[in-house]
Write a structure and sequence with these properties.
The protein has two domains: 197 residues, Rossmann fold (3-Layer(aba) Sandwich); 113 residues, no CATH class. Helix 4 links the parallel strand 5 and strand 6. It is of the alpha/beta class and 372 residues long. It has a six-stranded mixed beta sheet, sandwiched between helices. The chain is 40% helix and 12% strand. The longest helix is centred in the middle third of the chain and has 18 residues. About 2% of the residues have low confidence.
Length: 372
């Protein structure tokens, strides 16, 4: 625990305007305010470098059903702030429940101390970025932007909140947040009254190096359902279902001889890697769940490529990739309030990359999983 369980911030948490109204969506029937606490960068060295951890509070406007119960919500990533859950919080937990919602920002993101590539919040990870990070934080400092340190931060926030508000405190988590919560509960098993893990990540079995492999398995099963629906399978030969046709298209793209793309869409610079990345994002997105249902149609139209297909594909490409064909998902385009690629990669590469009892994964294996 490194003394973390006894750490008490010197500053009080003053609730005030979050100053993000120009970025966040409007949330009906809730007021929003924020507060910040100063905590050690390294809990083993509590008197040295300090950082800021922030949390946002959503309180129902109506006090008709008000309770003293509070729900902390831990979001996914790693590398996503509490703000990414803002628009869903009021849907899952309507204000009529009378619950106060707390959205903590993981250290390194949101209104907490930022882990970024320069003094202006850039998330464009380059050699210069890595030099900047090691110069500013040092290797030991970067190691403190971890799951365990975030668990200690959460304990500080919860204990502070318990000191000013009576009532039950519970924690709801999803995706990476379940790993964050699991670490917290292992260190502080008695601090909250209840905890919920949604979309659980198993800390023993999870390995982010296998993410492409797992996505491929799910995508293959998803495309396989086409054969069970006449609305879909009527467009594909028996010996060339969507997953086989897609493999052919990806090979054609890699060899720069995909007829439809070369004849009509060269301005979008669509490569096999870009199409694979686009479909992967559509398959794995939890915020645009139904977008994936058009994937078989896109595969079919790229293969057939008549004039109607060209019109439809042009609309698809421009609404997903953009008019210039930019599929770069580099998070330098993500507002730093919501996401941090630096924080995400720091935790992934340090703590989540390898499987259980695994020392390394070679590059050839990673590339094969990716190409799958």
């Amino acid at each position: 625990k490194s003394g973390a369980s006894n750490y008490v911030p010197l500053n009080r948490c003053v609730w005030s305007d979050c100053n993000v109204s120009n970025i966040i969506p409007t949330i009906q029937n809730y007021s929003i305010d924020c507060c910040k606490l100063e905590v050690p960068l390294n809990y083993a060295k509590p008197n040295e470098t300090k950082i800021i951890i922030s949390m946002a509070r959503l309180k129902p406007f109506s006090q008709q059903n008000a309770t003293n119960n509070t729900l902390f919500i831990l979001t996914g990533g790693p590398g996503e702030s509490g703000w990414t859950f803002l628009e869903y919080a009021s849907v899952l937990f309507p204000p009529t429940y009378g619950i106060t919602i707390i959205l903590p920002d993981h250290r390194g993101i949101g209104l907490s101390t930022s882990l970024s590539c320069d003094d202006y919040g850039s998330q464009n990870i380059t050699i210069d970025c890595i030099s900047y990070l090691t110069s500013k934080w040092g290797i030991e400092g970067l190691n403190q932007f971890s799951v365990t340190a975030a668990a200690h931060d959460l304990s500080v926030q919860i204990r502070y909140y318990q000191s000013i508000v009576s009532g039950r405190v519970s924690v709801y988590s999803l995706s990476y947040g379940t790993m964050w919560l699991d670490r917290f509960l292992q260190i502080y098993p008695n601090l909250v009254q209840s905890a919920i893990m949604d979309s659980v990540i198993n800390p023993q079995l999870f390995s982010s190096s296998r993410y492409d492999l797992w996505t491929s398995s799910v995508a293959s099963k998803f495309l396989g359902y086409c054969q069970f629906q006449s609305e879909c399978n009527q467009y594909f030969p028996v010996d060339e279902p969507p997953q086989i046709m897609l493999s052919k298209i990806l090979i054609e793209l890699s060899e720069n001889n995909q007829r439809c793309v070369n004849n009509y869409f060269s301005q979008y610079h669509l490569t096999d890697e870009k199409l694979r990345s686009l479909f992967r994002n559509m398959m794995s997105s939890s915020t645009s769940y139904y977008d994936r249902t058009v994937i078989p149609a896109v595969i079919f139209r790229l293969n057939r490529c008549n004039q109607e297909d060209v019109t439809v594909l042009k609309f698809f490409i421009e609404t997903t990739i953009g008019t210039k064909g930019n599929t770069d998902t580099n998070s330098s385009t993500i507002p730093s309030l919501f996401g941090s690629a630096v924080l995400g990669y720091n935790i992934i590469q340090s703590e989540l990359w390898l499987g259980k009892d695994e020392d390394a994964v070679n590059e050839a294996t990673i590339l094969a999983w990716h190409a799958s």
